[in-house]
Amino acid sequence: DWTSDVFIDSTVADLKEKIGADKVVMGLSGGVDSSVAATLIHRAIGDQLTCVFVDNGLLRKNEFEEVLDSYKHMGLNVIGVDAKDRFYKALEGLTDPEAKRKAIGRVFIEVFDDEAHKIEGVKWLGQGTIYPDVIESVSVKGPSATIKSHHNVGGLPDFMKLSVVEPLNTLFKDEVREVGRALEIVETIIGRHPFPGPGLGIRILGDITAEKVKTLQEVDYIFIKGLKDHGLYDQVWQAGAMLLPIQSVGVMGDERTYEKVVALRAVGSVDGMTADWIHLPYEFLGKISNEIINRVKGVNRVVYDISSKPPATIEWE
Ligand code: XMP
């Protein structure tokens, strides 16, 4: 029978034996998986683990500062890297979703590699890969290679001659959360919705600019805070906003406006492989829509996505 305590004890023992006196480097994303994986590794080998948390400029509003703070409180040895400009520069003019993913993945590896090289004698790369990631990345290699490339799985560049340690690669998300709670990781991290590695980069349809990121961060912040304030956040697997590459006509006072449209999305799921749109209360949607249009400059229309997966995907890109 699987219990989180048994899993933790045996995993920590395995990690100790496997890693010994070696050093491990690991990228943290602020998400549940990498946080739980890092905590397990930290339990096993303490400060032989160095974590790297990269600000790619595509995170949620205030996310970098808040999450970095939580990690420090958890006792993790973590380096925060502000690489926003490197990412924006690499993304300039890119509109194709896969091209954007590749650029984000490539810059992440460059930034991460720079940091890893500063640690003397590191032998291992820690990863927060969970079981469904393993399955999805296998299907990417299949004959219909049109499925999105999940840049944060596998795919180690040759120049990083590190062995991989993935303590969660047999677990599903709900098990990861159970383990995280048993490890007493704060609920703001454990209960967090999944968030894609490329972040807002694949929620801004078309090309990415710092200004668009700022707009979407404000929209997303109002939506997510609203879900939390109305007790809806925990009933949703994943939620977010998409900034659409179109403008629509609106009216403000006597003036005609021609501004951006955002789409809100909230889905229920167990593993992200299939998902149903959530029937959020109309009153809630109305309130959030008003708040967004009144408060976020440059947005004059809000729509709600009522598509399920399949055939739609959770993300729009
Ligand atoms: P889709 O859009 O394929 O998303 O239904 C399924 C789950 O995967 C996340 N997702 C990604 N995660 N890198 C990631 O790390 C990616 O490129 C990526 N694309 C989608 C998505 O947020 C959802 O949880």
TrEMBL record:
Function: Catalyzes the synthesis of GMP from XMP.
Enzymatic class: ligase
Assembly: Homodimer.
Listed GO MF terms: ATP binding; GMP synthase activity
Catalytic activity: XMP + L-glutamine + ATP + H2O = GMP + L-glutamate + AMP + diphosphate + 2 H(+)
Stretches assigned to the GMPS ATP-PPase domain: 2-192
Residues bound to ATP: 29-35
Species assigned in the record: Algoriphagus zhangzhouensis
Name of the protein this chain belongs to: GMP synthase [glutamine-hydrolyzing]
